[in-house]
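Sample entry (190 residues):
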Amino acid sequence: MIVIIIHISVRSLRIENGTIMNSKLKPQDILVMVKILLLDKNPWSIGSLAESIELSKSETHSAIKRCDIAGLYNPISKTPIKSSLEEFIFHGVKYAFPVVPGSISRGIPTAHSAKPMSEFVESADSDMYVWPYEYGKVRGISIEPLYVSVPRAALKDPKLYELLSLIDCLRTGKARETTIAEKEIRKIIK
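Predicted structure, serialized as tokens:
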């Protein structure tokens, strides 16, 4: 006799229009929220947002729904709740979406290896962090970006690149780097 036990966290599920929604945040949710934040109340649609960060429309819509459930997004103003997003970025992202440094690969600099952190922190070429990317021009220690589309989306939007690199600094950094990254993120989020 086989017994299957299914554990469902009631807190992580929500029924909306007869459909059960899983509210557990995914890494791409942070990508969606920071992109909306950077749009600074400029009008956007699910389609234009999805295209700009190289997600599908359904992935983008689901990310917004999960962030609404998590208290990171205000569906009335169509903006992230800055204080909640900042708190999660500073205190939760490194635990929810940890970084495990990988092998040396070609890619795009991130964390302390990208601007603006590279202006504050000196590091040897052997300590460079990169998002693996086949067209990258730098070799370094590979770290997985928050989502697979991050390198392409970041190359299209310098401010997005800067903010995602700073978030990676929080995910990988030491105390001094983290303090500097938090200051820089606050300047952007303000």
